[in-house]
Structure formats: structure tokens, C-alpha cells
């Protein structure tokens, strides 16, 4: 009798001839990709639309250069023209709002939803009956989701930062807080925020085990953790040369914070930076965010171990 082809349920439950072997990670990644492809395609479509807008605005810097050459630098910065510094900066800040923190919140909501669904659909029970641990099952899924969300966000970050750097170096932006915000807030730390979002989604999905609760709680937890990092100014400990440059500390507002769209921000710190501080500030901030994501992942695995003991 010829062997029959395995069904999707056979592969998922580990009963078919192509079931993942104990300790194998690649089959687990393939299963995750098969189950996650619809929400990831939707996320990719949203990011593609944002990328198209950023690319379109990037092409408009040539008009700004032409206008400045025609009317002069003073009129370009303080006059009122369709392609003047104010209008161009407003468009760049709008692009910044779409890139700086929203991908992290999307990743958090998606991770929270998918993790909670694992409990609601009882796939965890299936994992317990197989020869692989729930920790390995979930870790493979979270790592896959974090990798894919980061890969989807990376082109947005590169495209936006290319546009912002081009405008910053050619002095095409208004001088002041908007210029500093547009240039310094997007970069490697943006990708680290996405990883933190996935870690927050994994944690809330594991603790709450309810999809609708996790979808709300995961972005909220991501925002709160970033707010604590920003307000505490731990980045100054990781990038200590900034100590001598930063003056002032905003006392009021929500937790004493300002905001770049949805991203908590310390305007006194950002406005103290110059172009040479970009990579130091971004890398130091990114390391802190990734360290926080790692702590959250450890806490999640401990909760998972207790739940499935």
C-alpha cells in the first residue's frame, strides 16, 4: 500500500511522517510561517504604503533645493512657498510619525494576539503531548515573528533615514526641535523597539491568555517600558559623553514626557545632540531596549514554565 501524504493537522500535531523531529527548529519555523503569513502580509501592505509616501517625499527634496537657489536661503527658511522649509519639514515629521514607533506597537499587538491564540486554541496542549517542550515551541514562534517584523520594518527605517539625512545635511529643514526630532529619533533603536514589542506581546499573551486583552495590553506595556527608559535617561549611562551636553529636565506633562507621535521623548536630550552624536545615541538606546526585551523574554519563559509544569 502506498504511503499517503501527510495532512496539515498531522504536521501540526507531530503525527505525520514529516512531523518535526525532537530538537529540530526549522520545522517549527515553517509551521509558524504557515500560520502567520496572513497577518504578516497585511502588515507588509501597511508598511509598503508608508514606504511609498516616504519615497515620494524623498524625491521632493530636489524641488526644495531648486527653490532655495531661486529665492535665497533666508526666504526659503522664513518665507511662504509650496516647497519652503516649513512645508518640507512638516512632511518629513509626518513620515517620522509613521515610522518612529508605530511598527513596534503593531508588532506588540500582533505578538500578543498570536500568543494568546495559542492558549485559546489549545495548541499548547498539543505541544505538551509531543516530544518538544512548550518553551521550544513558543521560542521558535516568537523568534520567527520578531525576525519577520524587524525585516519588514528595516526598509522603512533605511528609506526614512536616508531622506532625513539628505535634508539635514543640505540644511533644508527648519532649525529647532523639529529638525532634531526628524533626524535623531529613527534608526537602529526603531528596530529594537520592534523586538521589544514582540517581547511585550509574548509576555502579555502568556500571562493574560485572552486575545482581546493581549491586543490592548501588549502595546500599552511596550509604551510604558519605553516611557520608563526615556524618563530615566539611562541612555546617558550607556553614552556617557552626552552628560556634558544635556541641560534641563522637563518636569511636567504625562510622566514628565514629550512625544514624537506616540513615542515618549525627552526633548531636552534630543535637542542637545549634534550630527556626530547620531550613531552613539542610537546604538546606546538600542542596546538598552534590547536588554529590556531580553529581560522580558526571560520573565515570559518563567511564567510559561510555571503554567505548563
UniProtKB/TrEMBL annotation:
The chain crosses the membrane at residues 36-58, 142-160, 181-205, 211-230, 279-304. Keywords: Membrane, Transmembrane, Transmembrane helix. This is ABC transporter permease. It comes from Streptomyces adustus.
Amino acid at each position: 500500500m502506498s504511503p499517503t501524504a501527510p495532512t496539515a493537522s498531522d504536521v501540526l500535531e507531530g503525527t505525520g511522517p514529516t512531523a518535526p523531529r525532537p530538537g529540530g527548529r526549522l520545522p517549527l519555523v515553517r509551521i509558524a510561517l504557515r500560520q502567520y503569513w496572513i497577518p504578516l502580509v497585511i502588515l507588509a501592505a501597511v508598511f509598503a504604503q508608508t514606504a511609498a509616501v516616504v519615497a515620494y517625499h524623498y524625491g521632493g527634496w530636489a524641488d526644495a533645493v531648486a527653490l532655495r537657489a531661486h529665492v535665497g536661503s533666508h526666504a526659503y527658511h522664513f518665507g511662504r512657498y509650496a516647497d519652503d522649509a516649513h512645508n518640507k519639514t512638516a512632511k518629513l515629521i509626518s513620515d517620522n510619525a509613521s515610522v518612529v514607533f508605530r511598527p513596534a506597537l503593531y508588532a506588540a499587538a500582533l505578538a500578543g494576539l498570536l500568543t494568546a491564540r495559542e492558549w485559546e486554541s489549545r495548541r499548547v496542549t498539543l505541544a505538551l503531548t509531543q516530544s518538544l517542550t512548550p518553551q521550544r515551541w513558543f521560542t521558535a514562534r516568537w523568534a520567527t515573528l520578531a525576525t519577520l517584523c524587524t525585516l519588514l520594518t528595516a526598509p522603512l527605517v533605511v528609506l526614512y533615514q536616508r531622506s532625513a539625512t539628505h535634508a539635514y545635511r543640505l540644511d533644508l529643514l527648519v532649525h529647532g526641535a523639529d529638525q532634531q526630532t526628524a533626524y535623531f529619533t529613527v534608526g537602529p533603536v526603531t528596530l529594537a523597539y520592534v523586538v521589544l514589542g514582540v517581547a511585550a506581546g509574548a509576555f502579555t499573551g502568556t500571562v493574560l491568555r485572552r486575545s482581546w486583552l493581549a491586543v490592548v495590553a501588549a502595546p500599552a506595556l511596550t509604551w510604558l517600558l519605553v516611557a520608563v527608559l526615556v524618563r530615566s535617561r539611562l541612555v546617558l549611562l550607556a553614552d556617557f559623553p552626552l552628560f556634558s551636553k544635556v541641560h534641563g529636565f522637563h518636569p511636567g506633562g504625562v510622566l514628565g514626557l514629550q512625544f514624537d507621535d506616540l513615542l515618549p521623548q525627552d526633548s531636552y536630550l534630543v535637542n542637545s545632540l549634534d550630527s556626530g552624536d547620531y550613531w552613539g545615541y542610537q546604538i546606546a538606546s538600542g542596546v538598552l531596549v534590547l536588554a529590556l526585551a531580553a529581560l522580558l523574554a526571560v520573565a515570559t519563559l518563567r511564567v510559561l514554565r510555571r503554567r505548563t509544569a
